[in-house]
């Protein structure tokens, strides 16, 4: 007889979704988290694509503490102090339940919903390891006498997953496979945010930026609006940050917080973030795997969900991960329900993997499998912004021989950047194939 | 270039034991010392008089895991021994 049927390690969206779904089906489930209160250890950008959560918790859009309803997306290419942007609003996607969220209050709400369904929440408890034995699994914690026995373990403990590392399911993570991200939360009043970003009450906007500093591959920035705060952050592949620039000990490397500070001072950015009172600073790693090199995510009675399984899609400085976490947590719960019905938990991990394989999470990752290598192309961050800038300058400048947008100008600018037409066509083809 | 201004806004329940330890003997052979620019909380400080020129303090760690990846997991470095703090200890975010 075990203490619980299932122990879920980590109360983020993935783990809490698993616990909620299991408790809903009267499965005996413990949700273990190391924070004093849910959410205190959790960090996101972040935008929640809420459709899958609305299916799980129907009252979610009305009841959950949400930031703003995202009705606008902006993409800005930076080149020195010049910026070129696209702003996208569309009634066709206006009704989608996509919101900015701050996890302090959101995860507290979500864990309470799981408790209402009957899940046992165990706070202030750090899991030190998971061991599989004959007929059960043991979750070792830092509590006195705190070993918990169970039939199956769901590792929802994030990018640095203890469950994945101590079971050997995950190999040590390499710098190429993580983005380092830092983020600052700045308080502005609600009216200022509405006016500054051209929003109606409750409406939100998302900005992503690339091209700064010039030629830095795989470094991007974001700004999201919340009710009376904005978040502004930077994210860069760790291998890039290790060697790009000249600020490190041996003359290589760039501190990300320094890039964030410089980013906030750019002409294109300062008007958006100025004023206000800084409230919080956070740092986090973001999994950056392609579909073809996703890490292992199960073994025997143990499975990994959400960030612990690397289930994040990098769509070019915007990350899709919160809803993948929710969906993978639900799939883990379904696998557990199958095992309980059959009275055999040995194939829990395999069942989870099969269910996840049929989900939209793997479809989306598969569909974008070529995107990561496309995004590493340095021309995207150096030559193309410069070319676009040159071409637009020819169009809009009132000086000299500016005679409008022509292919000749574009090609001249490309040559100046040492980009051949062959490169241009090849990159275009790769972009087409990667989405 | 400093995180002082950023870290002013962060809160911790500091444990009396460190959750991360650094074996400075391994820092002696490390030529690039990525910890000095990649840790987003500047927990690694360059002090020439220290063994391997590194001084590490865990108290203002924001638990991102970067040092596990750039040092702990690197077979050529490996100075960092990384765990998560005891339950209820360490960084505490209001917003997240």
Describe this structure in words.
The complex is a heterodimer of chains A (435) and B (96). Chain A has helices at residues 13-24, 51-56, 60-63, 91-94, 103-117, 162-167, 190-196, 238-243, 256-264, 270-273, 322-342, 348-357, 360-367, 371-375, 383-396, 407-416, 421-434; strands at residues 4-9, 29-32, 47-49, 69-79, 82-88, 98-100, 120-122, 127-133, 136-141, 148-155, 178-187, 203-210, 219-225, 229-237, 277-287, 298-299, 302-304, 313-314, 319-320. Chain A is of the alpha/beta class and 435 residues long. Chain A has 3 domains: 4-65 and 101-171 and 295-369, FAD/NAD(P)-binding domain; 175-287, D-Amino Acid Oxidase, Chain A, domain 2 (2-Layer Sandwich), CATH 3.30.9.90; 382-434, no CATH class. In chain A, the strands form 4 sheets. In chain A, strands 1, 2, 7, 8, 9, 10, 16 and 17 form an 8-stranded mixed β-sheet that branches. In chain A, strands 5-4-12-13-14-11-15 form a 7-stranded mixed β-sheet. In chain A, strands 3-6 form a two-stranded antiparallel ribbon. The longest helix of chain A is centred in the last third of the chain and has 21 residues, at 322-342. The model of chain A has no long low-confidence stretch (mean pLDDT 92). Chain B has one domain (17-86): Alpha-Beta Plaits (2-Layer Sandwich). With 96 residues, chain B is an alpha+beta fold. The relative contact order of chain B is 0.27. Chain B has helices at 4-7, 24-27, 35-38, 66-72, and strands at residues 11-13, 20-22, 44-46, 54-56, 80-82, 90-92. In chain B, strand 3 and strand 4 form a beta hairpin. Classes of the chains: A alpha/beta (435), B alpha+beta (96). Chains A and B meet through helix 5, strand 11, helix 8, helix 9 and strand 15 of A and helix 1, helix 3, helix 4 and strand 6 of B.
Largest interface: A-B, 59 and 43 residues
Strand element count of chain A: 19
Helix tally of chain A? 17
Please identify the oligomeric state: heterodimer
Number of domains as seen in the coordinates of chain B: 1
Please write the CATH class name of the largest domain in chain A: Alpha Beta
CATH topology of the largest domain in chain A: FAD/NAD(P)-binding domain
Q: H/E element string of chain B?
A: HEEHHEEHEE
Low-confidence residue ranges of chain A: none
Apparent shape of chain B: globular
Radius of gyration of chain B: 13 Å
State the end-to-end CA separation of chain B.
24 Å
């Amino acid at each position: 007889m075990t203490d619980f049927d299932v122990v879920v390690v980590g109360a983020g969206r993935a783990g809490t979704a698993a616990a909620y779904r299991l408790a809903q089906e009267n499965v005996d489930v413990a949700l273990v988290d190391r924070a004093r209160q849910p959410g205190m250890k959790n960090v996101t950008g972040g935008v929640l694509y809420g459709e899958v959560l609305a299916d799980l918790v129907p009252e979610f859009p009305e009841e959950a503490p949400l930031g703003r309803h995202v009705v606008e997306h902006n993409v800005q290419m930076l080149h020195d102090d010049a910026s070129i942007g696209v702003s996208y609003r569309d009634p066709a996607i206006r009704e989608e339940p996509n919101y900015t969220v701050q996890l302090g209050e959101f995860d507290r709400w979500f864990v309470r919903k799981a408790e209402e369904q009957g899940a046992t929440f165990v706070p202030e408890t750090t899991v030190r390891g998971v061991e599989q034995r004959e007929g059960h699994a043991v979750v070792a914690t830092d509590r006195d006498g705190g070993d918990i026995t169970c039939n199956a373990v769901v590792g929802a403990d994030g990018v640095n997953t203890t469950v994945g590392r101590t079971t050997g399911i995950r190999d040590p993570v390499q710098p190429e496979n993580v983005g380092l991200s830092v983020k600052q939360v700045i308080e502005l009043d609600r009216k200022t945010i509405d006016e500054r970003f051209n929003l109606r009450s409750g409406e939100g906007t998302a900005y992503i930026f690339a091209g700064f500093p010039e030629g830095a591959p795989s470094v991007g920035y974001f700004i999201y609006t919340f009710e009376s705060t904005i978040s502004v952050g930077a994210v860069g592949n760790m291998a890039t940050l290790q060697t790009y620039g000249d600020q490190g000990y041996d003359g290589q490397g760039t501190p990300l917080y320094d890039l964030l500070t410089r980013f906030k001072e750019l002409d294109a950015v300062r008007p958006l973030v100025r004023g206000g009172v800084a409230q919080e600073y956070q740092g986090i790693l973001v999994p950056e795997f392609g579909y073809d090199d996703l890490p292992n995510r199960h073994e025997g009675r143990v499975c990994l969900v959400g960030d612990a399984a690397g289930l994040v899609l990098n769509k070019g400085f915007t990350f899709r991960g919160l809803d993948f976490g929710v969906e993978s947590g639900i799939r883990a719960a379904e696998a557990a329900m199958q095992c309980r019905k059959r009275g055999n938990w040995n194939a829990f991990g395999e069942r989870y993997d099969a269910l996840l394989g049929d989900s939209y999470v793997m479809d989306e990752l598969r569909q974008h499998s070529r995107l990561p290598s496309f995004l590493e192309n340095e021309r995207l961050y150096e030559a193309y912004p410069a070319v676009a800038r040159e071409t637009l300058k020819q169009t809009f400048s009132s000086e000299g021989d500016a005679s409008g947008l022509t292919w000749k100008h574009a090609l001249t600018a490309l040559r100046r950047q040492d980009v051949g037409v062959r490169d241009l066509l090849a990159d275009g083809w790769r972009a087409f194939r990667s989405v | 270039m400093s995180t002082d201004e950023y870290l002013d806004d962060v809160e911790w329940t500091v444990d009396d034991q460190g959750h991360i330890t650094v074996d400075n003997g391994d820092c002696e052979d490390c030529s690039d010392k990525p910890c000095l620019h990649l840790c987003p909380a500047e927990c690694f400080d360059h002090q020439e008089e220290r063994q391997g020129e590194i001084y590490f303090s865990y108290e203002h760690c924001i638990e991102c895991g970067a040092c596990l990846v750039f040092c702990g997991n690197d077979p050529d470095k490996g100075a960092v021994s990384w765990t998560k703090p005891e339950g209820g200890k360490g960084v505490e975010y209001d917003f997240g």
